[in-house]
UniProtKB/TrEMBL annotation:
Family: Belongs to the nonaspanin (TM9SF) (TC 9.A.2) family.
Protein keywords: Endosome, Golgi apparatus, Membrane, Signal, Transmembrane, Transmembrane helix
GO-annotated cellular components: endosome membrane; Golgi membrane
Name of this chain's protein: Transmembrane 9 superfamily member
Membrane topology: Multi-pass membrane protein
Length: 589
């Protein structure tokens, strides 16, 4: 009986496996001839304002009854996607010619809606078999023949032509465009009867399924853009080589001479230059809890960005994966909060026994707090415009639960681990009871000018690549070169580290021992240049309107603030190691 039972079970497993491999479904992107292919309408919006999007049926198009909204992930909601079912019917490899979608009598108000949308160059976005495609809803023509100066004519596309390419039993490419020869003139403010129709043509192609997304990357892979990418990379490498040479010169001609001189000099000669600061250079900085919270949060965000770039490199993240990036971003941010707690507590434990809880708490709110405030304000603006980027109440609850029951406990856990396994800081020399007075410095040795230099040099290495990133974020150029982005990010970190070492040495050479916060500010100042450049990018773009301006400024402020913390943490760590190195190498009596 047992053998018969096992045999029956084995046969059932084999049968189910056979059915799985022989059947087709949207999940594996395999279809039989005549099988229904899922199509979803997503959103509409003005072409020049990528953040200003509305649900497709906010415009009076033909709508199914009832409208069924697709269940979406948190990342899709954050991305502003609102997928719904449609009256369009796609059957695999079955052509349709002049299929009637619905007849509709447009009222004066509905005509006004369409005219405003056409005037702002509204586009629509659909998904067929998880392939995004776009099209315009109408066109605007200036009537130059009308006596008296002419006006504008509004034409609504009532017929959409779909071209679908397939290879075997898989869909490769989808295109859609409105037929201008069958557009309806809606210039006059009067009701009108229209008939919405569509056609679908299927054609075979030799493009493989694995390469079906290459068409979305052509804008980034054109020869001109490739030249820009590689020029940016070469520019970074040249700057690194120059800085390395300067620092090598600094070490060979100045630092080594100083170390040798201070080791052999008498006591009076030792008390000049950076050596004279041995009793003050390791004095705990002002507001140490805030400083170490900055380092912890910057480390947290640095690890997050490195992991996201790695996922992009191995193909887990790709630009056409709806909400994929934001899903990973939210989840990994919550998970990696353990690094923020650990780093903040471990640095705090180097210099103090008590108060690490405050440092860890600051690390938890230093970035999350401002982002939460900015996101709340932007969400109110989006809801007032009824835009899809406005988060529904359920999604807000999910985010709050995620951070309350995952991010905060992991932050506290990292803080406990960092404090329990802390190491006591061993200063190369005893710290004096009273701090050394700092002499009046020239303007080019003060913090604002050092911040300018510390930000300008790294920014000059990444500015070309930064333009490509902004064009991807605030335009319709899908960024598909994570490898170039990765090899640009790494040189930027190296440049910031090298510049930080040079500026710290210059500061110590003029007997200024307050290097702690200045190292953070000089490293993070690159983000200030990034924010200034984003303003320049907005002015040069065609974006307009309060909603788009709010989201552009708000999102870029949060992004640049994140990089300020990242670069500031890197600069502080490198400066700290450099200061330890030079004072450990001084031979004292």
């Amino acid at each position: 009986m047992a053998k018969a039972h096992h045999l029956i079970l084995l046969l059932l497993l084999l049968l189910s496996a056979t059915l799985q491999f022989s059947s087709s479904s949207p999940s594996d992107h395999l279809y039989n001839v005549g099988e229904l292919v899922p199509l979803f309408v997503n959103k509409v919006g003005p072409f020049n304002n990528p953040s200003e999007t509305y649900e497709y049926y906010d415009l009076p198009f033909c709508a199914p009854v009832p409208i069924v909204k697709k269940k979406e992930s948190l990342g899709e909601v954050l991305n502003g996607d609102r997928l719904s079912n449609a009256l369009y019917e796609f059957k695999f490899r079955e052509d349709k010619i002049d299929e009637i979608l619905c007849p509709k009598k447009l009222t004066i108000d509905q005509i006004a809606f369409f005219k405003r949308a056409i005037n702002r160059e509204f586009y629509f976005q659909f998904y067929l078999d998880d392939l995004p495609f776009w099209g315009f809803i109408g066109k605007l023509e200036e009537d130059g023949w009308t006596p008296g100066g002419g006006g504008s004519n509004y034409y609504l596309f009532t017929h959409v032509q779909f071209h679908v390419l397939y290879n075997g039993n898989q869909i490769i490419q989808v295109n859609a465009f409105g037929d201008p020869n069958r557009a309806v003139d809606i210039t006059k403010d009067v009701g009108i009867d229209v008939k919405f129709t569509y056609s679908v043509t299927w054609n075979a192609t030799k493009i493989r399924f694995e390469n079906r997304m290459d068409r979305y990357s052509r804008a980034s892979l054109m020869s001109v853009h490739q030249q820009v990418h590689w020029f940016s990379f070469i520019n970074s490498i040249v700057i690194i080589l120059l800085l390395t040479g300067l620092l090598a010169l600094l070490y060979m001609r100045h630092l080594r001479i100083d170390l040798k001189k201070y080791s052999n000099a008498n006591e009076e000669d030792k008390e000049v230059g950076w050596k004279s600061l041995h009793g003050d250079v390791f004095r705990p900085p002002p507001n140490p809890s805030l400083l170490f919270a900055v380092v912890g949060t910057g480390t947290h965000l640095l690890i997050l960005i490195c992991v996201l770039l790695f996922l992009a490199l191995i193909g887990t993240l790709y630009p056409y994966n709806r909400g994929g990036l934001l899903n990973w971003l939210v989840l990994l941010y919550a998970l990696f909060s353990v690094f923020a707690g650990y780093t903040a507590a471990s640095f705090h434990g180097l210099f103090a026994e008590n108060g690490w809880e405050r440092t860890v708490g600051l690390a938890g709110v230093l970035y999350t707090g401002p982002v939460f405030v900015a996101a709340s304000i932007l969400n109110i603006v989006a809801i007032s415009y009824r835009a899809t980027v406005g988060l529904p109440f359920g999604s807000i609850i999910v985010i709050l639960v995620l951070f309350t029951f995952l991010a905060i406990p992991l932050l506290a856990f990292g803080g406990v681990i960092g404090y329990r396994f802390r190491s006591k800081f061993q200063s190369p020399s005893a710290t004096k009871r009273h701090p050394r007075e700092i002499q009046q410095l020239a303007w080019y040795r003060r913090t604002p000018f050092l911040m300018f230099i510390g930000g300008l040099v790294p920014f000059s290495a990444i500015v070309l690549q930064l333009h490509q990133v902004y064009a991807s974020m605030w335009g319709y150029k899908i960024y598909t070169l994570p490898s170039i982005l990765f090899v640009t990010f790494i040189p930027a970190i190296v440049i910031i580290a090298l510049v930080s070492i040079g500026l710290t040495y210059i500061q110590l050479s003029v007997e200024d021992h307050e290097w702690w916060w200045r190292s953070v500010l000089c490293g993070g100042s690159t983000a200030i240049f990034m924010f200034v450049y984003c303003i320049y990018f907005y002015v040069r773009s065609n974006m307009s309107g309060f909603l788009q301006l709010s989201f552009f400024i708000g999102y870029n402020a949060c992004l640049c603030y994140a990089f300020f913390l990242i670069f500031g943490a890197i600069s502080f760590r490198v400066s700290f190691l450099f200061v330890l190195f030079i004072y450990h190498n001084v031979k004292r009596e």
